[in-house]
């Protein structure tokens, strides 16, 4: 998580607010252009130790991507 004075890394919902105003980060995405890959997590970075990442890799010379878990 972010330290005080730093930009917020994630948006956690404020449950004291009414529905529709409880903003939350829903996914974490890491793009790696050098390897044409992406890692996607269903959740915030704080969830990275308890949830699986989805790994996507672009096929060289093609516009399609393949996904692995």
Walk me through this protein's architecture.
The mean pLDDT is 84. The chain is elongated. It has strands spanning 28-32, 37-41, 53-58, 65-68. The chain has a 4-stranded antiparallel sheet with strand order 1-2-3-4, with no helix packed on it. With 69 residues, it is mainly beta. The chain is built from no helices and 4 strands. Strand 1 and strand 2 (37-41) form a beta hairpin.
Question: How do the strands and helices of this protein lay out in sequence?
Answer:
Elements: E1 28-32, E2 37-41, E3 53-58, E4 65-68
Antiparallel strand pairs: 1-2, 2-3, 3-4
Question: How is this structure best summarized?
Answer:
The chain has strands at 28-32, 37-41, 53-58, 65-68. The protein is an all-beta fold.
Unreliable runs: none
Q: How many helical elements?
A: 0
What is the strand content?
25-35%
Characterize the biggest β-sheet. 4 strands, antiparallel
> In what order do the strands lie side by side in the largest sheet?
1-2-3-4
| Arithmetic mean of pLDDT | 84
User: What would the principal axes of the Cα set say about the shape?
Assistant: elongated
Please state the structural category: mainly beta
DSSP E strands, number:
4
Helix content: under 10%
Measure the end-to-end span. Answer: 25 Å
**Gyration radius from CA atoms, angstroms:** 16 Å
């Amino acid at each position: 998580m972010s330290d005080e004075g730093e930009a917020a890394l994630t948006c956690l919902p404020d449950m004291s607010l009414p529905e529709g105003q409880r903003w939350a980060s829903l996914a974490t995405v890491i793009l790696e252009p050098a390897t044409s890959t992406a890692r996607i997590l269903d959740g915030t970075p704080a969830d990275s130790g308890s949830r699986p990442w989805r790994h996507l890799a672009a096929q060289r010379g093609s516009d399609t991507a393949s996904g692995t878990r």
